[in-house]
Amino acid sequence: MKSTVDVWVTRDAARTLAPPPRSIVGGDAAPVAVRTWVLGRPLQRRLEMGLVVDETTALRFSAAGKRQAIWERGVFPGAVVVLLLLVVGLETETFGARLDAVWTPLTALLLVGVLAGRAILPRLASPHHPRRDGRMVLIRDVDRQAAQDWAAVNPEGAIRLTARE
C-alpha cells in the first residue's frame, strides 16, 4: 500500500497553485488534469482549484460538482422559500385549518429531506475531493511522493503536508 498524506492549502493560494505534476491518487504520471470545486457549506463563495487525478476520480469530482450546484441553486433556495411561506402563513393566519394541516407535515418532511440531503452529499464525493476547513482547503489521502512534488513546484508555505493518522 502506498504511503499517503493530507494536504493543506491556504484558501487564497488554492486558485493560483500550479497543479501537481502527477496524480494525487496513485502518483501515476498525469492521467487527467481537472478543475474542480472545493466542497463547502451553502452560501460560501465558490472556490475552484486544479488537480491531477485518475479518470475515475475525475468523474466523481464532476458528479460532486453537479450535485453541489443543484443543491446551491435549487434545493437550498427552494427550501428557504417554502419555510418563509410557512412562517408568513402561520404569523398572518392566512392558511385555513385544512391548508395548515397540509403545510405543517409538508414543511417537516421538507426540513428532514434537506437535512438528510446535506448529510449525504459529502459522503458521495471522492475521498480526495478538496474540502474547506476554516481558512484552509484540505485534500485527504494524497500520494506522498505526488504531494512532495506538488509542494516543490509551488511557492514555499502554500502547501503543507501532514501525516495520515
SSE inventory with pairings:
Blueprint: E1 4-10, H1 11-14, E2 32-37, E3 48-53, H2 55-92, H3 97-124, E4 131-133, E5 136-143, H4 144-152, E6 159-163
Antiparallel strand pairs: 1-5, 1-6, 2-3, 4-5
Helix pairs in contact: 2-3
Can you give a write-up of this model?
With 165 residues, the protein is α+β, with helices and mostly antiparallel strands. The protein has one domain (4-163). Helix content is 48%, strand content 21%. The protein has 4 helices and 6 strands; from the N terminus they run βαββααββαβ. It has helices at 11-14, 55-92, 97-124, 144-152, and strands spanning 4-10, 32-37, 48-53, 131-133, 136-143, 159-163. β4 (131-133) and β5 (136-143) form a beta hairpin. The longest helix is centred in the middle third of the chain and has 38 residues, at 55-92. It is elongated, with a radius of gyration of 21 Å. The mean pLDDT is 80.
